[in-house]
């Protein structure tokens, strides 16, 4: 076994050049086992990963809808303002189990509608809409007085494109919606 033992093509004590037969088989078996373990841990992680959940309930706590959402997804509430009689759209983002007010869309600035943005917010026009973006308010729970077909016409838009017409389901009632944590995306 002299100086040419480690040269390419020479056979060593473990069955091949530099022990490739023995160590190669062992390494391939270890890689397959490691791959299975990593896939199993990944699936377990997906089943128990905390996922934001939107919960809509009657104000007394009776559950109505629970829907898992991705972090940062939008929940939009649409209603007719009770004094101004104009449509208002509030957009919230679900971040960390909290609802963050993202933007408000109105068609006027009268009677109780927003007129100013927050310190870091901005105001701009988009067609007939006046958009107030970035008010930096967060909520654990929002209670809503639901109107009817004549007044309020409250609608909640949940991802992905699910529209809930609350004014038809709970006219004159109070409902609450909140963000919390659930386990797994399923």
Multimeric state: single chain
Order of helices and strands: HEEEEEEEEEEEHE
Low-confidence stretches: none
Which percent bin holds the helix content?
10-25%
Kindly report the average pLDDT value: 77
Beta-strand share of residues:
35-45%
Radius of gyration over alpha carbons? 29 Å
- Distance N terminus to C terminus? 61 Å
Silhouette: elongated
The tally of beta strands, per DSSP, is 12
Total count of helical runs of at least 4 residues: 2
Which structural class matches the secondary elements? alpha+beta
Biggest sheet record? 8 strands, antiparallel
Provide key terms for this protein.
186 residues; single chain; alpha+beta; 2 helices; eight-stranded antiparallel β-sheet
């Amino acid at each position: 076994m002299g100086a040419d033992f480690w040269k390419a093509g020479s056979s060593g004590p473990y069955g091949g050049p530099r022990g490739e037969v023995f160590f190669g088989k062992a390494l391939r078996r270890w890689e397959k086992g490691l791959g299975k373990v990593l896939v199993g841990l990944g699936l377990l992680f997906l089943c128990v990963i905390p996922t934001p959940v939107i919960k809509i309930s009657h104000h007394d706590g009776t559950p109505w809808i629970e829907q898992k959402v991705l972090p940062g997804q939008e929940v939009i509430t649409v209603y007719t303002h009770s004094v101004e009689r104009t449509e208002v759209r509030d957009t919230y983002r679900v971040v960390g189990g909290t609802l963050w007010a993202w933007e408000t869309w109105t068609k006027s600035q009268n009677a109780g509608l927003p007129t100013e943005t927050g310190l870091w917010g901005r105001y701009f026009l988009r067609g007939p809409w006046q958009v107030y973006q970035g008010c930096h308010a967060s909520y654990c729970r929002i209670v809503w007085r639901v109107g009817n077909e004549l007044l309020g016409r409250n609608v909640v838009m949940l991802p992905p494109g699910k529209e809930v017409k609350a004014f038809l389901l709970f006219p004159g009632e109070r409902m609450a919606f909140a963000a919390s944590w659930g386990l797994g995306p399923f």
